[in-house]
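Write out structure tokens for Nicotinate-nucleotide--dimethylbenzimidazole phosphoribosyltransferase.
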Amino acid sequence: MNLLSSISRNIYPLNQKSMDAAQKKWDSLIHPKGSLGRLEEICIQLAGVYETEKFDISKKAIIAFAADHGVYDEGVAPNPQEITKLQFPNFVNGKCGVGVLSRFAGASVVAVDVGINCDEKLEGVIDRKIRKGTSNMLKGPAMTREEAVKSIEIGIEVAEEFIVNDYGIIGIGEMGISNTTASTAIISVITGQTPEEITGAGAGLSEKKISHKARVIGKAIEINDPNPTDGIEVLEKVGGFEIGAMSGVILGCAANRIPVVIDGFISYAAALIAYKINPGIKDYLIPSHNSAEPGSQVALEMLGLRPMLEMDMRLGEGSGAALAFNIIDAAIYAYNNMATFDEVGMHI
Ligand SMILES: O=C(O)c1ccc[n+]([C@@H]2O[C@H](COP(=O)([O-])O)[C@@H](O)[C@H]2O)c1
Ligand SMILES: Cc1cc2nc[nH]c2cc1C
């Protein structure tokens, strides 16, 4: 059995007993029941994930993947493809959005190249390159099925390296010029929304070019005709290597009972691929922010997720996940440090 199949067989529901115990603990703390809203929900979910109502997360990381996309040749992105290789080292030297926000949140960042279109070694970046970018999905499948499985397995392997080193929560991030095109195609196939309905500006495409991008996505779906119920096939035909690797992190974390904080639009596409492989991953996802891309709503609805932040962000990189770490930390701190009614002698 390959790694992906064995991981997928090991995903179980949340532990209800631990969630009930966490609920009971919240109810014992000096506040009106439920008044800390989603801070309470986050801790209850974490109790279900960890199978204990007693937890404290000290080590957290953003795992980011980068790759290029053959569909870039169709004029669907506002920035040159070289930005992928130029920006990715900045993830780990702390200079870019995700670098700074991760440092602020006390999280490590790892950057893994799964398909950047370059030959040179990138400083601080782990090389797990599958190929120098996907094929142009307007001319056939973006990758082979073997490459799709490989991208997911790389994500599982990287996640497990962090998990064995006691990281208790993982956020996912990415870099890849044109990857909103691949993500929109995935979300369109899996949710059934048309590309016209959900295609957006990505990193800043003009109105006129958004219509062109939607037509390219529509044509790519028509030519490749992916089966929407087969997550691996959707990834193979209209996906990207970094998207597959992000799906792998989600599957790997779920199988190891570790929560995954998802980021923006590209991570919604990755989560949908993982969801089609095993719907059980849903319980392990923690949403962060609501991406400004128009396809966000349908993707999040299918995943049953309500993001905690509405910040009009569309940077990607893992920046929203890093920001959400601060709220998750605050939730856990309140849960572990508020006094109980008994301790202060207050009874309601
Ligand atoms: O996270 C998001 O919601 C998001 C929305 C739009 C763009 N991005 C980032 O911008 C890049 C892709 O944009 P584009 O227009 O080249 O497809 C990629 O590197 C992403 O990290 C990210
Ligand atoms: C500078 C830059 C940084 C990015 N980070 C994610 N996508 C990006 C696109 C550009 C252009």
